[in-house]
Amino acid sequence: MSRGYHTSWRVPPEHREDAAYRAAGRRMDFAQAVYERRSALGWSAAELADRAGMTEEGIERIEESGVDPTLELIEQLAAALESGASIDPRATPEFRFVSRAA
């Protein structure tokens, strides 16, 4: 009888402080935040792209962690997603889009 197995990644503490590791984490948090807010609004990637003045491929690259979150891009997407942005390096995830109070 097969029970399967689980793999867990253990990142040594010295690697967690590496600039490339931190940058990858920011891209992943940003990607997740965009996807979660877009999904909460019930929008497709194409609809968000249209609202943000971007291409659907651009939104997909963001949601695949392929784009660094610049301030200009964060502002552009926050406006399109009808939200504010919260960045806190002490929290996990570090980045969130926050719905605006009505």
UniProtKB/TrEMBL annotation:
SUPFAM superfamilies the record matches: lambda repressor-like DNA-binding domains
Residues in coiled coil: none
Domain of life: Bacteria
Gene3D superfamilies assigned to the protein according to its UniProt record, in alphabetical order: lambda repressor-like DNA-binding domains
Transmembrane segments: none
CDD domains found in the cross-reference section: HTH_XRE
Location of the HTH cro/C1-type domain: 34-90
Protein name: HTH cro/C1-type domain-containing protein
Source organism per UniProt: Streptomyces sannanensis
